């Protein structure tokens, strides 16, 4: 299948590690011009080097960007557009909010989760939409969590903010489809990332078990009996954000090996 991504300009936020890096790598394999962003320059430099070596694609670069700062978001988008004539694909991604129950979360934690996990998506979309409208096409994929379908234990911030992304995507799909701008939400579930391993570690401490025991039990609850690989998740993103997707918009997809049972 031709993804029609060669020489297309792609921005992946939070792209220096984990799922973001895996997504950027898959786009680079398709011949896209890929930009990744995060707050840490050293991590970005390492990620760009890794992606170039893995894909033989020299068109990979980075921007240092604090996704809680609207001015740096604006500057990043403007710089990419000025240098490459537009942005064809935006992948909104951000690190997950802290784990914890409702009474453990003070206002500062709520504001942080709101700014990082919802408002940053609003801000990047606001900046790219005029350029996508001008060029007559665009693809946006918002990375969320399986909490968009089913509330997760001890993750009240994620359970609150992530569904907001779905509402945003659904609304924008209605507003932007006539401009050939398609927008979807994808939630990773049982994908083996540093965040999953960290959550397992905290759960293990609470249950007085080893992290390996918690992981083994978790895998037994997954119909496919294993965690997903970041690259497996990334392939779904690439399709939805590619020229091969011509009619899917406003949808929410979970990539979790069948774990979530909600309809």
TrEMBL record:
GO terms for molecular function: oxidoreductase activity. It holds the Pfam family adh_short_C2. InterPro entries: NAD(P)-bd_dom_sf, SDR, SDR_fam. Keywords: Oxidoreductase. It comes from the Bacteria. One of its GO terms (biological process) is bile acid metabolic process. Belongs to the short-chain dehydrogenases/reductases (SDR) family. This is 3-oxoacyl-ACP reductase.
């Amino acid at each position: 299948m031709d993804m029609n991504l060669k020489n297309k300009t792609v921005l992946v936020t939070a792209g220096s590690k984990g799922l973001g890096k895996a997504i950027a790598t898959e786009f680079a394999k398709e011949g896209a011009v890929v930009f990744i962003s995060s707050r840490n320059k050293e991590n970005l430099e390492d990620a760009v080097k890794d992606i170039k070596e893995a894909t033989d694609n020299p068109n990979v670069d980075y921007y240092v960007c604090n996704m809680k700062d609207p001015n740096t978001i604006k500057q990043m988008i403007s710089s990419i557009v000025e240098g490459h004539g537009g942005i064809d694909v935006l992948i909104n991604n951000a690190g997950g909010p802290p784990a914890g129950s409702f009474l453990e979360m003070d206002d500062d934690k709520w504001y942080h989760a709101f700014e990082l996990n919802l408002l940053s998506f609003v801000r990047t979309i606001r900046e790219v939409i005029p350029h996508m409208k001008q060029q007559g096409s665009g693809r946006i994929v918002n990375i969320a969590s399986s909490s968009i379908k089913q509330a997760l234990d001890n993750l009240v911030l994620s359970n609150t903010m992530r569904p907001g992304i779905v509402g945003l995507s659904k609304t924008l799909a209605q507003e932007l489809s006539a401009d050939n701008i398609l927008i979807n939400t994808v939630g990773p579930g049982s994908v083996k990332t540093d965040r999953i391993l960290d959550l397992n570690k905290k759960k293990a401490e609470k249950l007085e078990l080893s992290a390996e025991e918690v992981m083994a039990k978790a895998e037994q609850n997954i119909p496919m009996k294993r965690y997903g690989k970041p690259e497996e998740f990334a392939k779904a993103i690439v399709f939805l954000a590619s020229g091969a997707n011509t009619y899917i918009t406003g949808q929410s997809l979970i990539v979790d090996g069948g774990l979530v049972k909600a309809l």
